[in-house]
Structure formats: C-alpha cells, structure tokens
Amino acid sequence: MKDILNKIHSYIEEHQLFSDGDKVIAAISGGPDSMALLHYLLHHAKKRLNIEVAHVDHMLRGEESKKDADFVEAYCEQQGIPCHRASLDVKKKMEMEGTGLQEAARAVRYDYLKEVMTEIRASKLVLGHHGDDQAETVLFRLVRGSTMKGRAGIAAKRNFAGGVLVRPLLALTKAEIEQYCEHYRIEYRIDPSNAKDSYTRNRIRHHIIPLLKEENPSLNEQIKRYTEEVKEDEDWLLQQAEDRLQKRIIEQQVQFMKIERKNWCKEAPPLQRRMIHLILNYLYAKVPTSLSSAHTASVRKLMEQKHPSGELHLPKGLLVQRSYSTVTFHFVPSAQALPYCYRLDQNEAIVLPGGGKVIAKEGLVEDLDETADFCWLNPSEVEWPLTVRTKKDGDRIHLKGMNGSKKIKKIFIDEKIPLDLRGQWPIVTDACGRVLWIPGLRTAQGVEKPSNGNRACTLIHYKDLLGGHSSC
Asked: Quick check: pTM over 0.90?
C-alpha cells in the first residue's frame, strides 16, 4: 500500500495539484474510485485541505440512485464533512435539448458542481479519474478523430468555475484503486450501467483495454507518458501558431477574419492546423462538438488548391471563402438560404443543404454520440413517409401536457435560437403534415419511446456533417 500512496503523493507534487489551506469540493458518486479519492483526501493528503463533498443523483436508476446519494451523505456525516447533494432530471434535459444520455448527464453534473464551487468559494474541484479512464479516453478520442489537443486525454488539472479542477488519481490503475479500497476496507456502491456494453466507452473499457494490457501490462504508464508528451508538444506548437497567425491576419472583427494566403501556405502543416483551430475558437461563441481534424483538413485543402476561388460551409453557418490571395472566415445568415423539403422513409437518410443529416432507423438506437439529437416513436402510430423540411408560416406543434398547440416561431423565440439559424432548422412531419419533432428543441405529444423496442423507430439528427458542402 505504501507504493500506491507514494504514487499519488508524487503525482500531486509533480503537477502541483494542492496548496496548504485549499478549500476543495470532492465530486463523489459513491463508487470505488471516488470513495478511494475521498478516503485519501481525508487521511493521507500531505496538504491541509478544507474538504466538502458534492453528489449528483442523475435520477436514472430510481431507488438505487437515491440509495447511492444516501450512502454518500451518511459517510460524510460519519466523517464530519459537509455534503451537497442534488437530484437532477437527466432524461428531461435529454428531451429538451435532444442530446444523448452521457452528454446530458455530464452537462447537468458539471453545471451543479460549478454552482457548488462558486457558492462555497472553493479553489479546487477534485475528481476521481484514474489511469484506466485516461487510456479509455485517449482511445475513444482517437477513434472519433479528435484534434491533437483532444488526443492528449484527460488533463491533470484545468481551470474551472474560477478555480481549478484536479485529478490526483490519474497515476493509478483501476486494479490499484480496488486494492486500496480492499486494504482500507472502504465500502462503496456499484452502478450496474457500467457493466453494459451499450456505450462505446464501456466496450473500450471491457474489451479493448484488457487486450492491450495483455500485450503490454504497463499500458497505463505508456499512455501517461504519451499524454504528457503530447501536451508539452501541443503547448509549444500552439504558442508558435499564435505568433504566426498574427502576421497572417489582414482584418479581424467579431465573427469575421480575413487571412493572407500566400505566406500562410509556406507555414509547416502542424502550424497551419493549429492556426485554423485558433481561428475557429475565436469565431465560434461555442465550438461545435462535431468539429474534428477532418474539418481542418478541408480548410487546408481550400487554402492550397490550384483554383483561385472557392468556398467551404462549416457547421453553424460558418463560411470559408477563398478569393485569389485572401481567405475569409465569416458567418452567413442561413435564413437567406433556400427552403428545403425531403421525403424520409424507414431506414433512409437525407443530407441537409447547410450541413447535417437526418436518419430514420428501425429499432431502438441508444448508443449515440453527443453530435446527435434523437427521438423514438412507434412507426405504426404515424403516417409514412415522413417529411423533413424548413419551417413554414403558421407551423404549430402539439406539446405534451399542453392544451392546444404552440407556434414553432414562438418556440424558436423562447429557446433564443438566432435568427440566422431558424430558416434552415429541420422540422419533421408525418405524411398528414403533423409536426412530430423539432430536433434539439421539442417532441410532439404522442411521440414517445415504445415499450417494445422491436417496434420502435429512431429518428436521428446529426447536427453537423463535414462542411455540409463545398464548391469551387
């Protein structure tokens, strides 16, 4: 056990995660990782820490998740430390925003942790991620095509809510955490959803990582070294890219940037990629989760092509236009785009003009990433084929728990959807013209998940495809 404690001590010291007198919030789920974390902070931390706990019940497992919250609260009472707990309706957030389960759960959890941290003026938020989580995250992001910064994995620390989020257990394996719990006889709760293979992360955790550890038992150490080296390289390259980009900007305004192309193309490809990332981070108020290395490659191709003019449509209405010696990045009002109307039948897919895709899949599809909005319906209760179109004057939708209907225009206003996005927002109707779904916003009354998954149909809206389209 001394070796495990020394690993944690060394990692904390190496990354300077704590200072004497820090007021910390420990995010505790009740599982082995977080309970080992809390035990360490209470009994073995070498710095004097003022510790409080936060627990989120995602309301996904009924009485079992409530018991998790009660367990954490009882432990905190026993240890004499404050416990902040909240029950947050993840399913409601999924329905309102059209996001996937894991994305919605993460969003509500971090929003609450931010509130608690701000309320008690904590300087640190402490999470229990370990080395196996790091390996899983690196593989997951490599599969998804993340940028180099994303491939660096989980950071030991990062800024959060006016303080710092820290992860002191990244140096440990899952097996070492279990050994720690066994040695100190730490009780914990088990979330059965972690054993399911319905999520990509779980499949990586259960099948791929064990195989890799058979090839190299020191996998976690290799991943740790890889992520640290990638971060060091990325920090240096990003600073170089920032310096070079300033020399290539001809004009810069809010949501607008014009670049000089000739000397840009003389820069090394690693710097070009990061310069593009910097431009996108500047222009987007919130960078779309679907932006990937493929988008960066498309911008570089437009910069370097022999044809002197061309354009590329990126997510959320960002237009990249090349004209001879300059390349301009700016947003265009999509409301000025032409309306569209497409027929959609079961097991068909359509690509939308401004970037995006709508699919109707037979069955209950649940393992969707965060770039997807979705809803389930009983195909026998709607008139096929469906229609995916832009809004029309007077469009209305019948909502759950509401007498009568509501104008879609009013929904756009209530949800603060920018004017330049409303004109191209997809509306899904059945063959009778009844509005069934406004992806990411609202689902009509009667459109619900069938109790028998074999009789279900899943409508999926991928918000952003690579570029939507490009032309020269």
From this structure: no
